Amino acid sequence: MGYMRKFLDKLAHSSIRGDKLIGIVLGPTVLLIVIHLPLDMTPDQQNLLGLVAMTLVFWVLRVFPIALTPVITLGLAVILNVASDREAFSAFSSPTLFLLIGSFILTHAMTRHGLGRRISLMVLSLPTVASSTYRIVIAFGALAALMSTVLDNGAVAAILLPIAISLSRTFSDDIEAQSGVSDDTHPLAFTVALMLMTAYGSTVGALLTPLGDASNLVGWAHMRRYNDIDVTIGLWVAVAAPIVIVLFGALCAIVLALNRPEVGSIRGARATVAAHRAKLGRMTRAEKNTAVVFVMAVVLWLLPSLAGLIYGSGSAAHTLVTERLPPSVVAILAAAALFLLPVGWQKGFTLKWDDARNTNWEPILLVGATLALGSLMGSTGLAQEVGGRLAAYAENFSAIGVYAFAAALATAFSELTTNLVSVTVLVPIIPAVAEAAGGDSLQATWTATFAAIYGFMLPISTSANAIVYGSGQIPFWKMVKTGLFVDVSGVILVAVGVHIMLRVLGIAG
């Protein structure tokens, strides 16, 4: 007893956290328990399930740095014979990582040379926007949502992140002075709300058309192949638009309620914006170069959508542009251009390699490792196994229960794997479950497809989350807490919204 008292006394006066010590013991214990449970799974599936459970324990109790945790899990996956080292780490060649790398470099250039600040001040010059912190956050989220209807959500986040950072810096001193809040160790709640709306708005808007996300296309193709109704783009938009609008309203309410800005209105905001704009002066050569690259990237990111609208989705022109200029390639080309465009004989080029070295590489590690975990869940059959068992469990539900379950399951899968894996696993299963419960297979497919795009809790849930989290302006647990509430509201709104809209449009009885 005396030894325990001494231990607790030393722990209380040390820099070692008690929850970390608990996690060091609890994580491996959970792994061993899951591995030895009498589950009807293959050894590699059960070992991987145990590793995923251990990873969640380590994340919650912060045993290792967040980005390092899934990397350690991948190493253990090799040791436990879940996969070879080549298979385990193959996701580090994912195009998503190169989209992040190119986006981070472009963001750095916009921030360093002041282009993001100039654009943000232009936005703030719009009537009534700058005077309210709430209107700034909502307007920025609406802009992200609108852009993501035609652009990849990661590309939208990459475009808007430097502008959001500049917006935050423009008003941070005024907000701190007006509110009396000054804490250099934590970002302002206004900043957190603005960053979260940048990420979440980029994801919400992607639901509006089937072209907004790859998972939309998979679900859309399944609907068109296995249902008598011709699900056109117009019909998709008609079903999705009311849901997107209502969900965006819920998103604004949740983000601002959980991350309430320190002040509601900023005194002298218009005068402050005018003064900042006057100080900017004329655009520098480096700023002009960055602007050219930024516009080029936006145009190339838009090109596949434009080709689809003009020549038709699946046409030769649309296919060519989509295959040759995916978002990741555009991001890398844009980043490369910044190292080639000169500023002057003395100053050299727009960016130097030192600028790239200063980029935050933590999100790259985090996203790469978690993508690899998601890939292993697919290749070992664990995702299909878990999805099939949960779907079988849902056979006892009513039709409404199946729809709600499909939405919840799709969202949960998207958090831990990717929305593409979620749709790929669930869309073939859920319709049959719905029919067995007396429901409609098309409604079940639509519900699962819509819900799969929503993953707001973790930095790895969407590329938009990863890019914005990489700014260092969002504490991990702020994203988890806010994202959980948004996920729950999304599940409810998608399940109810699809149910109502299909009946309003006369598609389901």
From TrEMBL:
* Residue ranges of the TM segments: 21-39, 59-83, 95-114, 134-167, 188-211, 231-258, 291-313, 325-343, 364-384, 390-409, 416-434, 446-470, 482-502
Which InterPro entries does the protein's record reference? Answer: SLC13A/DASS
- Localization in the cell: Membrane
Q: How does it sit in the membrane?
A: Multi-pass membrane protein
Looking up Pfam families in the UniProt record yields: Na_sulph_symp (PF00939)
Instruction: Name the keywords, alphabetized.
Output: Membrane, Transmembrane, Transmembrane helix
The source's domain of life comes to Bacteria
- Listed name of the protein: Anion transporter
The protein's organism comes out as Rhodovibrio sodomensis
Organism placement in taxonomy: Bacteria, Pseudomonadati, Pseudomonadota, Alphaproteobacteria, Rhodospirillales
